[in-house]
Specification:
This protein has a single domain (3-114), classed as Trna Endonuclease, Chain: A, domain 1. It is 31% helix and 36% strand. It has 2 helices and 5 strands. A hairpin with a 2-residue loop joins strand 2 (36-44) and strand 3. It is globular. The N and C termini lie far apart (33 Å).
Length: 118
């Protein structure tokens, strides 16, 4: 497995653990449809949360959040709506979160969680 794929998988595992510790229930991982993929879908309280996880090995290319622009947010929202429709969940309760993780080969890692970005 390539380093990049392994880095992404480790990041998603860390994000899932963080969200679970924060009270989220994991409903789906790597959910795919013809329009794209959601890294994680969780529930917290009465909210459904579509979670994008961005993992980097350094800040050399910027913070992971910088990879999420308006078009990506729109796409995440569309995918979240589609997940809700296909799973019988209330679209009105959908929230989009982003988890940004930096996992250097050595040194301190970091995890930042933005709630309700859309």
């Amino acid at each position: 497995m390539s380093y990049r794929i392994e880095l992404g998988r480790r990041g998603e595992d860390l994000a899932a653990a963080h969200l679970t510790a924060a009270g989220h229930r994991i409903l789906d991982r790597n959910w795919r449809c013809a329009d794209g993929e959601l890294d994680l879908v969780t529930a917290i309280g009465d909210r459904i949360v579509a979670v994008e996880v961005k993992t980097r090995s350094s800040l050399g290319a910027g913070h992971p959040f910088e990879a999420i622009g308006p078009r990506k947010l729109q796409r995440l929202h569309r995918l979240g709506v589609r997940w809700c429709v296909e799973h019988g969940a209330r679209v009105a309760r959908l929230r989009i979160d982003i988890v940004g993780i930096v996992l250097p080969r050595s040194g301190q890692s970091s995890l930042d969680h933005l709630e309700g970005v859309r």
